[in-house]
Amino acid sequence: MLRLACFVVLVLLLRSVLGLVPGVGEFLDRAGIFGIWALAFGLSWFLSRWMERALLVRRDAAKMRVLGAVPSPHNQGKVGAMLLAHGKPKKALEPLRAACAGEPDVAEWHYRLGLAFLALRRHEDAASALERCTAIEEEYAYGAALLRLAQAEVARGETERALAVLERFEKNHGPNPESAYRRGRVLRKLGRAAEARRAFAEVKGLAASAAKYQRREAAMWSLRATLARLV
User: Fold this and answer.
1) Contact 105, 124 (CB under 8 A)
2) pLDDT tens, 90-147?
3) Where in the chain is the domain with CATH 1.25.40.10?
4) Span 54-156: which CATH code?
5) Those residues with Cβ within 8 angstroms of residue 83's Cβ, 6 or more apart along the chain or in another chain
6) Which of 80, 99, 192, 196 might form a disulfide with 188, Cβ 3.0–4.6 angstroms?
7) Residue 14 half-sphere exposure, CB side, CA atoms within 13 Å?
């Protein structure tokens, strides 16, 4: 009962604050009780997501404490992967480096290290880590390692190398919306404008045939390709 009362107070407080915003206040006045219900629904959704996130953070913090108690390379890799997943790439570097040094033939640690370097815009280091990953297992993460390697190569100005990596990916998997978009960007940088336009045009068809669980991401690449064709 207390929780419900607190929730109602939060909704009314939110209504009061938003009522001070020009345009929003007038809209809520016109909406009446429906506006209150919409605010209650939105606040409930936000609090639910926030609580889920908080529980996940606490759970992973507990896992990291357990893993850190036995600092084996494998445990260090798991700690680094969790830190990376929580948006802490800088903190993830040290445990991931330790994992790579202790288990140099495990592709996952080099892949995660490459992702951390990419997030930190350290593209030379990212390319080095991702090259090591793909040398161990070219198809790691269903080809995602190759796509991230191509991304790193472009970012450090190695467009020819990026194109070669994308061609490796598409030879193994066939093109997908992301690879076609990135291929178009690389071809444009290389001055091959007609080929770049064809690659961007290809993205729309690939996005339309994407699996259901991939459609949202595919639509994003399709939009980016459309914008690239207009620029």
Assistant:
1) no
2) 999 999 999 999 999 999 999 999 999 999 999 999 999 999 999 999 999 999 999 9
3) 54-156
4) 1.25.40.10
5) 64, 89, 91, 92, 95
6) 196
7) 17
